[in-house]
Specification:
single chain; mainly alpha; 30s Ribosomal Protein S18; 44% helix; globular
Length: 66
């Protein structure tokens, strides 16, 4: 079983401004990877998804990658 990235690195709050961490949970086309692929807990996956969507809306992350 994979270790949750956020609990392993002692990250309490998933911040939408931390683009480098958020990019690691996006696929090559810009899609959000499932928690089965990333090993993130369901609670952190929900926070991660909302942070990615917030960052996309503000233009920090792309919606799609061509």
């Amino acid at each position: 079983m994979k270790q949750d990235y956020f609990s392993a690195n002692n990250i309490k709050f998933i911040d939408y401004k931390d683009v480098e961490i958020l990019k690691r949970f996006l696929g090559p086309t810009g899609r959000i990877l499932s928690h089965k692929r990333t090993g993130v807990t369901a609670k952190n996956q929900r926070a991660l998804t909302s942070a990615i969507k917030h960052a996309r809306f503000l233009g920090l992350l792309p919606f799609v990658v061509k």
